[in-house]
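Need a sequence for this fold. Nothing fancy.
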């Protein structure tokens, strides 16, 4: 096959190269934003489903005969532990949804490791309806009378898994070396967020030694220390940054 003379070869217009590079870069940025938006929307859907499934564990009192207001009130009274479990887990999942919303407000890019951390975090979120139902099923008088520790242990470990994964995501996203948050997050925000995300699951986990070494009833009230400790810790951190 005859070759074209050099004079007839197609000439490259180098003036167009910067524009092609910019167009390709813009396309990559838009694609990255689209993939990041998919990640956030998927996470929101998982939160919505998990928080909805919590109420399924609360069964409507079923009476085929001898129905009365007294019997219905008695049945509702027996459901109080389930309602308490529902309200507690609803607030916890809602809290972590707001934290997830906030942390991904800093994210401008993503990596495979961030995707994996987020997926593991959502695993523990999805598990919350089951652990809540399991714990609330035995959270009545039997929990104290029989000193049942397995339901509490399962629930606490589920929550701690969610809490520690949230902490790992904060650490990863706020680390400038990973280049997933541009511009870098304010140091005070980073310090407070990392401390809060670590203290909460640690306090929850500390309830397990209390339950096994003393009495289950004492362990139930351990999480009440969270707001007090967080307040003290926040004042100390803010004082250092002044």
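Here you go.
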């Amino acid at each position: 096959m005859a070759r074209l003379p050099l004079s007839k070869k197609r000439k490259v217009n180098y003036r167009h190269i910067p524009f092609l590079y910019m167009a390709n870069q813009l396309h990559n940025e838009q694609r990255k934003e689209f993939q990041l938006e998919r990640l956030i929307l998927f996470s929101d859907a998982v939160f919505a489903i998990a928080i909805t499934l919590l109420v399924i564990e609360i069964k409507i009192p079923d009476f085929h005969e001898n129905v009365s207001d007294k019997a219905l009130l008695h049945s509702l009274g027996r459901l109080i532990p389930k309602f308490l479990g529902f309200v507690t887990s609803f607030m916890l999942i809602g809290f972590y949804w707001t934290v997830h919303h906030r942390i991904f407000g800093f994210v401008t890019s993503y990596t495979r490791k961030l995707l994996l951390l987020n997926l593991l975090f959502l695993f523990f979120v999805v598990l919350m309806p089951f652990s809540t139902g399991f714990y609330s099923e035995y959270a009545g008088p039997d929990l104290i009378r029989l000193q049942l520790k397995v339901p509490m242990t399962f629930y606490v470990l589920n929550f701690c898994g969610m809490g520690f994964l949230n902490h790992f995501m904060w650490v990863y996203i706020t680390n400038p070396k990973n280049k997933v948050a541009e511009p870098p997050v304010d140091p005070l925000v980073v310090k407070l967020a990392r401390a809060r995300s670590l203290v909460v699951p640690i306090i929850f986990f500390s309830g397990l030694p209390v339950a096994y070494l003393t009495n289950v009833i004492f362990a139930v009230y351990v999480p009440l220390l969270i707001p007090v400790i967080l307040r003290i810790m926040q004042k100390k951190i803010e004082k250092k940054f002044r």
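For context: The chain has a mean pLDDT of 84.
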